Amino acid sequence: MSRQLPRFDTAQIGPLRELLKKLSTLKVLIANIVLFRVVVDANYVVQSLIYRVHHRDRGATALEEMVKATVIDVFAPRWLDMLLG
């Protein structure tokens, strides 16, 4: 019999992170929420953009979900700003 782990909505991590910044006593009890700093290859970003154009009906990618949930900070070359901006 497999045991189901409780599910956590990652969209709640960002607001929880902000709350912990404001309530320092709570932060001591909980500690820091994990945050990864990731350098994203520009080829991956371009490939993802092309995919999004062809499949507009699909949901967000895993990378987009993690950025939205504030689990990762993404760093990429500045020239990608021209494509995204």
Please explain how this structure is put together.
With 85 residues, the protein is mainly α. It has one domain (10-84). It has 5 helices and 2 strands. A two-stranded parallel ribbon has the order 1-2. The longest helix is centred in the middle third of the chain and has 13 residues, at 42-54. The model has no long low-confidence stretch (mean pLDDT 75).
Layout: helices, strands, pairs:
Elements: H1 13-22, H2 24-30, E1 36-39, H3 42-54, H4 62-68, E2 72-75, H5 80-84
Parallel strand pairs: 1-2
Q: Write down the Rg.
A: 17 Å
Approximately how much beta-strand content do the residues carry?
A: 5-15%
**How many angstroms separate the termini?**
50 Å
Number of helices: 5
Offer a few descriptive terms.
two-stranded parallel sheet, about 80 residues, mainly alpha, about 10% strand
At a glance:
With 85 residues, the chain is mainly α.
